[in-house]
Amino acid sequence: MSAIIIDGAMVHYEALGRGRPIVFLHGWVGSWRYWINAMQVASTSFRAYAIDLFGFGDTMRDPSRYSLERQADLVNRFLEEMGIGKVALVGHDLGALVAFSYIKQYPKSVDRMMAVNCPLEYDSVNARVRTSSMQDLVDWLSNRSPESASALADAAKSDPQAVSASLAGLQSADIFPSVRNLAVPCLFVYGPNDPAVSMPSQERTDSFPNHMHQINLEGAGHFPMIENPSQFNRLMTDFLSLDSGVTPRDLQLKEEWKRRVR
Fold it and tell me: For the chain, which domains are there?
């Protein structure tokens, strides 16, 4: 296990590979662990990091650090302490919200972002996320396969207060309008079968600026990186392979993804 001390708090992370940096940020259910497969794929060309956010996995529990802003500060301090420059971010639900909070403060530090099942507004999150125990969320959102059980083994370590604080932050601050015009290339990825997070409306999708794009993975639910890792990893690899600054809309040129565009 690798760890770093940030402002007196232990932050757990794991790293694989060499190359340009990419940081994976987990969601409300689980920890860095469900990124293992994606990290292994990314590590062939990138230095892949995965962080446990405050209140999750093996990182310190501290309710004073559970806001989206404080979680984004964790990302910033981690990058500073590790000497990491411009970075690609891959975030899943909570992790995507934290990544957007980071981009809001440091847009020039992010080369591109992949936001997986990211709620763009508070009402797009099913109320069950706010009221259920972590084990209930695992049973509800995972496909209960042996792979899911292993990937989500750290879910029981999650502090429910960390979930509540992030949702309160989503409710009180309209994050998306603050970042949509910052010109950071962003690929939104959704599982149409996700019961926890509703996909953006067609009207909102059509209003995305040119540097943002949405692709829906057919048959995927809340954890596309676990449910269909080959499909998810292929899309991630194609996105990361784009030249810096290129819009993810260019992924439409590949017939494989044309069928999955909303």
Answer: 2-258 (3.40.50.1820)
